[in-house]
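check these tokens.
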Amino acid sequence: MENILPITAVLFIFAIIITIHQMRPPQKLDWHGEPLVCISAGKIFDNERLYFCSKGVFICRNKELQIHFPFETLQSLEKSILKINNVRVWTIKFNKNGQHYSYEFRPRYSGFKRFYHYLQQNHPQITIKNWNWYWWFD
């Protein structure tokens, strides 16, 4: 019994740290004067997030731009079967300079909704796949 209490305490503290980390608001960033909209929740052990504006999709860690993908390089946006905290994980795929990039993320509701509608209206050539029961036949 005495061994269970320290393990439970450590797990509880770990859960609190993860919760606090996940609740942090995204950084306010801009690209050449245009504000970037955050479309993903932060990862558990990393503050890497996806942003977008009319110039493309950006992967940023803290306030630092990691990579920029113009919309011409975006191939698909796919909903996966995986859920974390009752939120579907999405995969976004790019093809830039012959290299394939794939990024999995949990969407941030308000920003992701704007991104999803922006893609549908302005870039209909991009494949948007919603998960379904016959996904293994795609």
